[in-house]
Specification:
188 residues, mainly beta, SH3 type barrels, OB fold (Dihydrolipoamide Acetyltransferase, E2P), 3 domains, six-stranded antiparallel sheet, five-stranded antiparallel sheet, flat
Length: 188
């Protein structure tokens, strides 16, 4: 068993029969009482965000998490389907477990985090940056590159992102899946 000394960001712990990811943590020490460890926790299997406090040195229940590369196949009414690249086994994951479902492309590789005890998927993460094709964008006017003005553009996944005025339809761009922001134009 782990103790509060093992606390770190990203750790998955079991608390009150639910799984939580440690977002932030710290320690409070006063002169007269024992040190306390606090953590801001985000629900993995629920939509709750809570704060919890332990006495320093108290045991916590850490969940073993395994990560594996999967390939995105398709979406249907049951959820998003992914295939293990090694065993070709397929899994279906609910939309709320995918960190940026609007940016999923057919055949794209993602990282699936599973609970080591139950082999159930905990979350699906896309790469930090992905390359996508701009399928629709209003043409930019000549001389519009002096300011940092942005315009909406539809990408191949169907999502809309804001891009600089010089980006045109048919070009490939790189976007951040964490924020949904334009990063750069990809040279072909």
């Amino acid at each position: 068993m782990a103790t509060t000394a093992d606390m770190r960001s990203g750790l998955i712990i079991k608390l009150d029969n639910s799984l939580y990811s440690v977002v932030e943590f710290g320690q409070n020490k006063t002169a007269r009482s024992a040190a306390k460890v606090w953590a801001k926790l985000k629900g993995v299997d629920n939509a709750r965000t809570i704060e919890h406090t332990w006495n320093s040195g108290e045991t916590i229940s850490v969940v073993r998490v395994e990560k594996k590369t999967y390939q995105y196949l398709y979406k249907d009414e049951t959820g998003y389907s992914f295939m293990d690249n090694e065993t070709f086994e397929q899994i279906t994951v609910a939309e709320n477990l995918v960190n940026a479902p609007q940016f999923l492309k057919d055949g794209q590789e993602v990282t699936v985090f599973t609970n080591g005890e139950t082999d159930m998927p905990i979350s699906v993460e896309l790469p930090d940056k992905i390359e996508v094709l701009v399928t629709y964008s209003e043409p930019g006017m000549k001389g519009d590159t002096a300011t940092k003005t942005l315009k909406p553009a539809t990408i191949e996944t169907g999502a809309t992102v804001n891009v600089p005025l010089f980006v045109n339809e048919g070009e490939t761009i790189r976007i951040s899946t964490k924020t949904g922001d334009y990063v750069e134009r990809v040279k072909s």
